[in-house]
Amino acid sequence: MWVVVHVCAGLAIAAVVKQPLWLVAVLAVGSHVVLDVVPHWDYTVSRNPVPWGWVDILASCALVIVCLVAVHMPWWLVLMGPLAAAPDFDVLVGTIRGDEARHWFPSHWRSFPHGKASPVPGLATQGAIVALCIAAVIAGRPY
Q1: What local confidence, expressed as pLDDT, does residue 133 receive?
Q2: Burial of 4 by CB count in 10 Å (0-12 exposed, 13-18 middle, 19+ buried)?
Q3: DSSP assignment of 73-142, as one string?
Q4: Phi and psi of 18, rounded to 5°?
Q5: ∠12-43-54 over CA atoms, to 5°?
Q6: Cβ neighbourhood burial of 70 (10 Å; 0-12, 13-18, 19+)
Q7: What is the pLDDT of residue 100?
């Protein structure tokens, strides 16, 4: 699952649940596991993952900035977006080290039933999840 999808999920959970913050944090991180089961396409298996990775990270950063500046979400709720995506740092570290097999987050283990799909349906699924999450962020107002 793309990082931006995880960020969207964390933001949606924060917008809808809001309090207590510890519960929002647990749900945000837990959403990472749920989304990794959904069939999706990861650019990490493409021939050119670096450009896709930059697009993903820039889109994630832009989304966080939009929620802070334009949507006026409180920073402690916006933080749940990056928190939901944080487990993907172990994928990045593994890729940089050249050791793809060693991951600390359970949904990244080889034994975990990770959802896979070809690019078109996989990206469409992720786009639909992002759209639902954006709707939840809008519906969750006021903060």
Answers
A1: 98
A2: buried
A3: --HHHHTHHHHHHGGGHHHHHHHHHT-TT--SSGGGSTTS------HHHHHHHHHHHHHHHHHHHHHT--
A4: 65, -55
A5: 75
A6: exposed
A7: 66
Maximum C-alpha span of the chain:
45
Residues of the chain with pLDDT under 70: 95-96, 98-101
Instruction: Return the amino acid letter for 31.
Output: S
The tokens of 122 are what? 């996989």
Q: What torsion, rounded to 10 degrees, do the Cα atoms 135, 136, 142, 143 define?
A: -130
pLDDT confidence of residue 29: 97
b (16+ CB within 10 A) / e for 29-38: bebbeebbeb
Give pLDDT, residue 126.
97
pTM of the predicted protein model = 0.92
Listed residue (42, 10, 47, 57) closest to 123, CA to CA: 42
CB atoms within 10 A of CB 98: 6
How many other C-beta atoms can be found within 10 angstroms of the C-beta atom of residue 6? 28
